[in-house]
Amino acid sequence: PGTVVAVTHDRYFLDNVAGWILELDRGHGIPWEGNYSSWLLQKEQRLEQEQKAEKAHLRSIQHELEWVRTSPKGRHAKNKARLQRFEELNSVTYQQRAQTSEIYIPPGPRLGDLVIEVKNVSKSYGDTLLYTDLNFNIPRGGIVGVIGPNGAGKTTLFQMLIGREQPTSGQIRIGESVKLGYVDQSRASLNDQNTVWEEVSGGQDSMLVNGLEVQTRKYLGRFNFKGAQQQKRVGDLSGGERNRVHLAKLLAAGSNVLLLDEPTNDLDVETLRALEEALLNFPGCVVVISHDRWFLDRISTHVLAFEGDSKVVWYEGNYSDYEQDQQRRHGTQEPQRIRYKRLR
Fold it and tell me: Is the confidence at residue 92, as pLDDT, over 50?
């Protein structure tokens, strides 16, 4: 037996495999014994202790500040010492906890009874059949996790929903009140030469978000781009930051049905949690392609599973519920490489 050191944001993997977690926080490496769930519990306790310490620190600053305001400075050596102590307490070298990530999804128009209905849909390319007899009906407020191997036809389904491709047979009905918002995984539309502010605002101080005029800088702040961060070049951003710019740019339209293709790529754990909270608070519907099982467990009300051999399963429940159902149907066999049926 050896040792494995893995750098990952996959919380499901960490929960099932990790025996230790090394958290990098404010320039320090903090070791935790246990898996991801254990780390969450231990970190909650540490944050509670930090909050108590920060409150005590704030009280110290307030006491020193009150003295600075009321006492003539520099009159005695003791006063000089107290002033120096205040400067230390209030210095930029005091490390405060980084701000919690935040993602804001503007709500769209109210949905009607019909959202998206797919009836008896098949899709093929040449003599290769991706799937056949696909049926599902997305309810209002539903969050559908789309899972399956690469190449199974998940993105092709999105292309059919937005009308860029047509089904080989069958019918797709989109409700009249539906305003689709499609966030693809390429991010190729981003201009690396623009700043974050320029990329999202088009160089304007205000922008339309769901038809309402808002201050661009305030809107960007809802995606955790604050202050000088808004002036960073897109080309200098990390993968997770580019993802947030992409989301901020495309979500401004105020859609009520979101099609998200691998939105969790490159996001750190804090931002993943922020995205989960944003989706859970979103009043519309979401259809999301993802391989992040922890993410799907937290948000999904339904699962659309591409299981191979051109078979697609619609399941009501989250990822763990679906996984248990799949094991009842197929046993605990290992996943197989995707296979396609041939058209005769």
Answer: no
